[in-house]
Amino acid sequence: MIYRKLLAIFAFCLMIGNVIAAESDWRFSIGANYRTFDDIDFEQLRFINPKYPASQFVNGTYAADTLVVEDGAVQAPGLFQADQTNVPKVFIDFSPLNGLVDIPAEVSAADIPIRVTYDSITFMGADKEFDEGSGVVFGARRVLKEKSGYSWELDLSFATALSDTDEDFNPETTTLSTNVTGTVFLRNVNEDGDGEVTAGNFPAPISLGAAANVTGRVEYDLDLAAYTFGAGVSGNFKAGNFGFIIGAGPTLTIADLDVDAVQRANFTKKLKDDATDLLFGVYVNAGLNYNLNESVAVGLEYRFDYVFDDVSTNLADVDLSGSSTQAKLIFGF
CA 111 to CA 88: how far, in whole Å? Predict the structure, then answer.
């Protein structure tokens, strides 16, 4: 996909260059662009189980009079455990329910608290470098003032850079629990082992730290397309067939960023966001040209772009500032 885009842009620039090359005061260039970008700022991301969209927990919900837990039959005693005189006692009825180990339908234990455990997963964000991008560059220069050995030139450019980056992280899981007292009912156990607990008293969950029943992973795929227009002034210092170029000017970048994220825990959830931003910046460049004849030259150029703002989505932001290496074919008539 990226290479087809590059080929289409290259062909378009070549066509435009051929059309306007009749203006003999201009020299035109077309070439390859290899660009680096600064970094990706991944935003904080809380894992949300689609079964419990309003819950902070990935394996259930908490309310004043009802607890809902996921995989209660499968994960026992991890989710349900009674503690009497500091001796754990697991309430498990080994009569199968839908092929799963079942927890008793009713536990009457006024003096025995039942511990219900939940997991909450939050990716706290991170900074990573964005992968390099490649594209084409099209330029046009016209002499503004010429003296012996050097000239000042108007320098117009259009450069593209297409890139993609994949990253994955294993965020920390926070485990919380609550003690349930009174008569406890486990009901509505389905084929997945999910169950609903009702009782007379549910204290608020308390943190148990990082001792988790559920682990999480988040995977990112970012696709970036940057189209940068530049207009500046450059000095061309000549020595024989060589020309040393140095210049600077403002830029305008159209940046398109697509971000796909996948949360993996005891569920899989896909997230997507994209943005197209118009961003201002500045550039400085330095290069060396070699004239093959009066009409054709080749050049190699280094350029640094500073972009004032990031291209931003709700999932990640990308700083587009970075350096470019450009190899060019220059021609004039």
Answer: 14
